[in-house]
Specification:
five-stranded mixed sheet, about 450 residues
Length: about 450
């Protein structure tokens, strides 16, 4: 009975170690709510798995019980993680394959130690092999934590549907290939076979680590280039805004210089009794004055500048604009963050609209602040296919493209925004919702789900 309990406990520890490795790749991105859900469900699930272990080891250690519990014990935890940490099926499968290879390597090492010490591997040494496995697992915990936390390849691999599954299934395919020879439940391989098989995962991990470093370096270089292009775009927008303001200033100065002349003309018309002509003259001067004014959409100068510049660009290429801007005089969202976001999203919308025929070029933007919530919606016509990444947002592999989505992702992460994108019936619609600061939350903020 004591051996059964010991085997049940030590097997459960091995299984929970595998669960921990499966969790690490997602540990940086899971929300507090998802962590709590996992904790609440792991406890009853672990009790059920422990009962399963006791059932299979009821008659003591056996090859059959050893292999069944280790091969099947992880399945409930794996599917639980997929239901809690959603929309990452490819990443879960990739992590499963890598975790399987790592655990296979540790089991092979533990079995090799037992076989070398005692000359043969029999069922009575299975508790010892499991114990040695846990010792190895604990000794390598720092390596495991660092490796599996940074396990997932760059997001670019998972944005392309075909490449996503090729990358994800590769480690699992190798793991299954290594497991096929030991599916015989009444047989354990010799120490030489264990030793040789244990080397294959080591070679794979070293090869993957080298490839991962190279891809992360390439991704970092591309990110730097994108940041440079983003900065250049912002500088160009700033220059355009300065040019617009300078043009208005010169026109205002010219009108001011003509004030004396205008007064004389009006005086002459009024003295001559030509009131209607004087009124017409006043209206013409008022129209000239209005033409020098930069339209005010918001009290925030940077936001107003971004909207003015991109609305003007849209009008220059024949895009019909509908807008509803309703922002308070002061708000907690950083003005520069919102201006950069609007600039990049409007740039994307204008670029997409330019591909449409002139009669189908239209753009709509809504920015509102209601009850402590910000709402941003941009929509435009687009009759061409759009590639969507695993996060449900558009992506592009072309150099110089994708800056709008990078800006969007950074903004959403900083302000914990809900993002929704859809492309139906030739219309693209991007919606965002996010909360304000503490004073705005006190005004009645309604929480939105995380993206």
């Amino acid at each position: 009975m004591s051996e059964t309990i010991y085997l049940g406990v030590v097997t459960l520890c091995v299984q929970l170690g595998s669960v921990y490795l499966l969790y690490l790749p997602f540990s940086r991105d899971v929300t507090a709510e998802q962590k709590n859900r996992l904790r609440r469900k792991y406890l009853p699930l672990s009790a059920a798995v422990f009962a399963m272990n006791l059932f299979f080891f009821a008659d003591g250690a056996s090859y059959f019980a050893f292999k069944v519990t280790l091969l099947a014990g992880w399945l409930p935890y794996f599917f639980l993680s997929m239901t809690v940490i959603r929309d990452k099926a490819a990443q879960h499968v990739f992590a499963l394959g890598m975790e399987g290879l790592w655990c296979f390597m540790l089991h092979a090492s533990a079995g090799t130690v037992v076989t070398v010490l005692y000359g043969a591997m029999t069922e009575k040494f299975l508790p010892l092999q499991l114990t040695i496995y846990l010792v190895l697992f604990a000794a390598l915990i720092k390596v495991e934590r660092k490796f599996f936390t940074n396990l997932l390849p760059t997001q670019k691999f998972f944005e392309d549907e075909a490449l996503r599954w090729v990358i994800s299934l590769l480690p699992l395919a190798i793991f299954i290939g290594l497991m096929i020879p030991i599916f015989e439940f009444t047989f354990l391989p010799t120490w030489k076979e264990k030793f040789s098989r244990g080397f294959f995962p080591i070679f794979f991990f070293l090869m993957y680590h080298s490839m991962s470093l190279a891809t992360h370096q390439v991704a970092e270089k591309q990110l730097q280039e994108q940041r440079t292009r983003l900065l250049n775009r912002q500088m160009a927008s700033l220059s355009a805004h300065n040019a617009l303001m300078e043009k208005s200033r010169r026109e205002v100065e010219a009108l001011r210089a003509d004030l004396n002349k205008n007064y004389r003309v009006l005086n002459e018309l009024l003295i001559a009794g030509k009131v209607s002509e004087a009124m017409a003259y006043i209206r013409r001067q008022a129209n000239l004055l209005d033409s020098t004014r930069v339209q005010v959409f918001s009290h925030a100068p940077l936001v107003n500048a971004a909207l003015s510049i991109y609305f003007k660009r849209a009008e220059e290429v024949g895009i019909k604009i509908r807008h509803k801007i309703d922002l308070p005089a002061t708000f907690s969202t950083d003005e520069s963050d919102l201006a950069v976001l609007l600039s990049n999203l409007l740039e994307n919308a204008i670029t997409a609209s330019k591909r449409q025929p002139p009669s189908a070029r239209e753009l709509s933007i809504i920015i509102r602040h209601v009850g402590g919530q910000y709402v941003l919606e941009i929509s435009n016509r687009y009759d061409f296919p759009i590639k969507l990444g695993a996060n449900g947002l558009p992506y592009s592999t072309e150099i110089g493209h994708g800056l709008g989505m990078i800006s969007l992702a950074a903004f959403a992460k900083k302000y914990d925004a809900f993002v929704d994108f859809e492309h139906t019936n030739g219309r693209v619609r991007l919606s965002m919702y996010w909360g304000g600061g503490v004073e705005e939350k006190n005004a009645g903020l309604i929480p939105f789900p995380s993206p």
